[in-house]
Each structure stands twice: as structure tokens, then as C-alpha cells.
């Protein structure tokens, strides 16, 4: 077996479209014989005809290292072996697959027969009945072999030798797990004589004439011709290949994915295609479809399942696309390879704008300064072109695909340029995308990843200004291109912050066409723990020498596709309807952010809630509101504030659908807005209890520290002053805008804010209260925060606490937060809050949070991040009942709101633990009341915390009531 060439595979028929046909097919999926050898050098020569009875078995499709043959490995940019192209290492597992089978009579009825592989990682040699059919390269691409004279009526022996690594690995260094094997289906196809071997549907749409322009090229065996029927359009058995102008067709868009079922037939075969008419163009540096600008509200989608890797499951795929649609996602970049072919059908049907990306990434060469990069080496030219051909031909008939992407992170070179040229010639109806062409010479869109906000603004401004007189031709060309971010908002851990700020820029500049969050799903691998529980693992957990740790855990949904808070916030940022309520509640402004739809399918409801009780509600009459326009509607009298509320008076206006969609019942929220009038709580009167140094009414204190010990029998310790958080993934990384600084996590550690020490300065009882003054300082350094805490008795079960915090002038580090930390006995059971929720929020990650009276269960309090870190804050809280096993603590503000975090884990434990399943049970409840917080940013890729969300040392004050409520309350 040859696994160190620079050539594409061999022996396959030319790539062609995936077609739904009435010709017979036979699946060869199932249990195959399998054996793995540690190296090609030691793999047995007689593997094809040796008795395989004592080999193991393997499920096809599947990855062998997820089926007990070895273990998975994860690395991102780093190659797992020496960069020595085109050679793989000697230690390179070789999988031998064998299947003895009978071909079905239906397949055998045809003299022409094909054997199709939809995905083999990374290189294969394929034999049938002792005949070498050829080899494959391009793991996520389809390969078909002609087995006409070879397939027998009787037992057929299929033997496939697969190398985990090969020359192809240099072209497939995507950021994901190394998962070898036959991982997509294997199929036998009977091909009728005179059948339809290929089809190319060109379904253009002329928006000015409201006319579809259809041209279907069919490649028919033996040079025959095919006929076309589209019953719905009155097209009945006309010759394919003629250009048809069809007035009055409805165009396809992601918002209204109108498909017309068509049949193309010859005497021996009928093929069905679903046709979407649409025209993709660039005009005046704008991305247009059917003459209208579009906004890509996108995600990057890898194919990943926690126990099956990249093996396709139709239900999971459909469900996840429905989940995307429910969260207003309208675009997918198929990072970084063509997905399973059936996913394209789903994209067409459900409505997604798709960037279909070729299976190509040579990122490993970055570590050697791009020396020897295949993209620029003519020896690899055919391999590059072969990948592009297989991508385009397989998926060319899908309306959803609006751009072909050459691949990802392969630097630059003439081979990429050749791919672009070939694709443009073959399919001028779509745009070419490639982020790595920094000069934008051979692409149709200006694409970037993780460009910081300021640069996104600058790129938007650029096209509004005349070009400088010394602009190069390349710059001049780039100014004519629309801009998108093929990756932004790195969804790793707590985050991604500042998506709203990106979106505001995308909407502000006509050139901007949106972007794709990195990434949709966390690529964790699930294994069973000792008690049968599921554990999610990441890079390094399988003993890999070279790995990139938890960088593979960076999704808007977890590996099981449960939404992370980031998805909920992103959904609010990109919601198709924006609702803004005037400050005096006189009117609401409803902005239609669809590109094609009016709001006829939307109703607008309002609801006024005062101190948790609904006091009035209604529905507004919405005048016609065309795409990309805004209407204003008056609000009725009853929606307005009259008497001052105790906690808050909240007007919520929601736009909901009135008709069901495949992804959501009617009533689905497509936009919402609020106006919140914060309350003026009554100031409680001090009770008669005489304060002492160790007690104030119901509160008991430790005279040595001045700290609270119990409140009406509830054990509670604190407050201590805290400015640290358990570093998030983003805190551990450097934003691309501040590479000259250590990460926040390192800065905080150096400043000692993770280990602050408190000294009691003074304790004085009298004058109706107990005043505790403390100084909380960092070890090694002189930075400190002075606190003045005044405790007043107000009831049998409650105290008032007035807090003033004042930093000294020795601080040089920004803080994560400024808060008061309490520890209660017993695990948390949940919390009821009046504040922004229900999902967690931070200053730059709060778009979805709405003021409400939220009931949170124990598991809602924090986020079960695979790698533990700070999570679970709720901003703008005015009232909270924190339920624990030993009772409930009720905290309410007497003035300003606070951010609340309730966790079953201490920050120290979170910071010190590598996996969620390793967190110790601490049996306590950790409560933080934050008076200020830093944002979270997206520094793992992209900008860190934006300046306006950073937290330099500052003073703060708050007045609270703390009350013990019995556990049963
Ligand atoms: C990008 C890359 C992605 C992924 C991401 C980080 O540079 O294209 O594949 O690695 O960074 O998660």
C-alpha cells in the first residue's frame, strides 16, 4: 500500500452528483471483520485472502479507535508526528477490513455496477474479489469504483486496507479528533444501461422579472437524453438540457425554503431532485440573494457525536438543525469538510445559507513557518483539485449552497488559486470563499476569522470612503467584496462575550454580511465512568503525547447537544425581530430583521408584571412591516408605571409566531424587549435589640474576625470581600488585541487576588448597630480593599447590612468582580430570584436575559462546564431566595441591584480541577453578591474583554437585608 505520495487516490470514476434514483442500491453497512496492525511495515501481506474468522469485528460505518481498537487523539494545529511530507510515521495503525457478501438480485440485474464509499479516514486501498479497484484520498469525500466486471453472482470478498495516517494527513489537519476508519456508508449501486449518471441543476432566479431560469444538464449513459417533469410548474416531460424561463416561480431562500420536486427520467432510470431557484451575487460590496442583501446568522458545524465521532445519524442531524432554527441560526459553514451528503438535503429543506467547505487544511505547516506547505507545491496540485472536484460535484444541486469554500487555514499558494479557478469555471453560480487568501485575489467575499471589533468597524468604513490614491489593485479589488467573519465569538467555556457588539457593527455597515460563531458543538468524547456514569474527555485524556487539551470543547451546545448559555444569548443577538420599548412606555418599535419575510406570521404581545404579579396584558396590532424596516406601535395606558413598585415593574413585549414551523410550534418567540422600572424598597425600621460585638438581633458574629456565623439559626460565614473568579477558558488566554500582556488568569495569580487575606481592623457595637471594619489584602503586595460593614437588627429572623468598599491606591490589576462572598452549610437546592435570567449572564453576555421572577433548580445555578470554571452569575438581581439543605437565605437590596452567583463548588476547587466529574462534593453553598463584574470576552480566539467591560479597582456600596427562611418555606 502506497501512503506517501502527493497524488490523489486512483481508480475511481469521475466525481458526480449525489442523486436520489430508483435504480437499485444495496447497503454494505453492518458488522465487518477487522484487524488492526501497529504499522504498515508489520501489517501482514496476505491480509486479503487469509482466513479472517479469528479477526475481530467492527461496525461499519464507524471509527476503529471508538470501538476498542486503540484510543482517540486530539490535536489542533500541531501535527501528531514529524512534519516530513508526504511521509506518515512508521507508528501508524493499519486497519484491515473484510466483508464477504452476496450482491442483491436487483443490483446484479444491471450489468453496470458501482461500489461507493462516502468517507474513509485517511487513505484506503480497495480490493474486490482479488482485484485492486484503487485507492482513496479525501476522508470526507465520496469515492466510487466501477465494479461491473468484478462483482459476482455468488460470494464476493471485499477487502479494504485503511491507514490511519498517510500523505493525506498533511491535507487534513483540521482542529478535531483523529478518528480513522470507514466512518461513512458503503453502498453497491446497480446502474441501468441508459441511466442518468450525473445531473447539474442550474436554477437561477431573476428577481426583477420574478422568473426562474432552469437549465438541467444530464449525463446519460450511452449518450442518451433525459426528460424533465415538474408537475407543480406545469412542466411535463420536456427534454432536459433546454433553458426554461418559468414566470411566477417562488424563489428559494433560507427564510422561505421553497423547493419544487422534479423528476428527470430516461427509459431506464428516474431521478428526483428538489429545485430551489435563487441567484447569488455580489453588487456594490454587498452579498445579495435574489436581489436582496442577506445577513448570515451562522455557526460552524463539525459532525461530531460523543460516542460515535463523525459517524452520521439522521435523527441527530435533523434535530440539531431544528435546534439551530429555533435559535434563529440561518447559516452554516460546514467546517472543515463536506458533511454527510444527507445533511445537504436538510439544509435545502429547512432553509440554511451554506458555505460548503472542501476537505482541506494544511495548518500543521504553520509550526514550520509554512515551509513545504502543499498549497504552494505543484506536486500536490492534482490532490488539491481532486478534493475540490469531489466537493463541488457531490453537492452542486443543492440550493442551500451559496458559496464553495476552498478549505480552512492552508495559508496561500497556487494550488488554492487553481481550485478557485476550477470551481468558478465549473459553477459560476456560486461564490468562492477562502479565509486564508489575505489579499482576496481569488475569492468573491472578504472573509476573516476573529477580527476584533475595531477592525470590523474599519472594514465596514472602508467601502464608504474613496480608495486612497496609492491603493494596490488587490486592495481595490477587496473593496468591492462583501465582508463576513467565517469564525467569530469563540464559544469556549463561559462566553462568548461581546457578540452583541459584533452584531451592532454587522448591521451598521452595508458591506457586512454577518458571520459564523465558532463552533456549534463541543467535541467531547464520552466514556463510561466506574459506576456507569458518562464522562466527557478531551485532548490528553487518552495519553496522547501531542495534544491541545480542552480546546476541542468550544461549542454553543455541549457534546450531547444541550444548549449552553452562549446559544441563548446568540439567539437573542440574531433574533429576526428586534423590540424596543420607549422609556416612557408610550410606544414600542418593532424592527423586522428578516431579509425576505414580512411580519404577517408574527403577533406582538405585551405583559406588565409588578412585583411578580401580572397586572395587565394584551396584543398589539402590527401594521405591515416589510423586511429590514421598523414600525412603531402605541402602547396602551395600562402598560405604564403608576405607583412605585417594591421590587420592579416590568413591561415585556414579545414577538411570537402565529403559525407552526417544522422547528417550532406557533407561539415561538422571535424577538422580545423590556422596560424595567426598578423598585424602591421600604427601608426597614431598626428593632429594639441592643447590638453587641458578638450579636445583632438574629445575627451571631465571631469577635476574632468580625465575621457572621449564624443568622437566626442558619449557619452562614462571611462576608469576605472577593475580586477573583475561577478563571474561565477565556481568562486563561490572550485576546488577539493584547498579546503583549499575560492572560487575566496569570495576571490575577501574580497579583494574588486568588489568595486574599482579611484583617479585622475594628469592631464597634453601639448606636443601634455593629460596625465591622476590615482590610482585605493580597499576599506579597500592598494592594487592599477596606470594607465598612454596618449590621442592624430589624426582625427576629433578619438583619440589615450596609456595605462600603474602598480600594487603596496600590492596585495595578483589573479585577474579575467586586463582591461579598458567603458560605452556607449544605448543598444548594436552588434559588428564586427577581432579576435578569433565567440563564446566566455577565456584563457582555446578557442579550437573552430578561427581568423576571425566576425559579432556578440546583442544576440551573451554574453551568456544568467540562473543564470547571466560573459560571452561573445572574446580573441585575434585586431579590433572591437561596435554598440549601440547611435552610434558605433571603437577600434583598435596599438600593441598587447586584449580580448573584450560587454554586456548589468553591472557586478554589473549580480552578484546581480539570474535569467536571473530578469536582469534589463540598457539601456547602457558595454565594457571591457582586457589586461590579468584568465582562468575559472571547480571548480563547478573538478579542479579550472590551475596554468598556473591564473592571479596574473601584469603590462600591450597597444596602441589603439578609433573612433566614426555614427550609420548608
Ligand atoms: C480556527 C480554526 C478552527 C478552530 C478554531 C479554534 O482558527 O479554523 O478550526 O481551530 O480556530 O477553536
UniProtKB/TrEMBL annotation:
Family: Belongs to the glycosyl hydrolase 2 family.
Keywords: Glycosidase, Hydrolase
Top-level class of the enzyme under EC nomenclature: hydrolase
UniProt name for this protein: Beta-galactosidase
Organism: Microbacterium psychrotolerans
Location of the region described as Disordered in the Swiss-Prot/TrEMBL record: 1-28, 671-694
Xref: Gene3D superfamilies: 2.70.98.10, Galactose-binding domain-like, Glycosidases, Immunoglobulins
GO molecular-function term, one example from the UniProt record: hydrolase activity
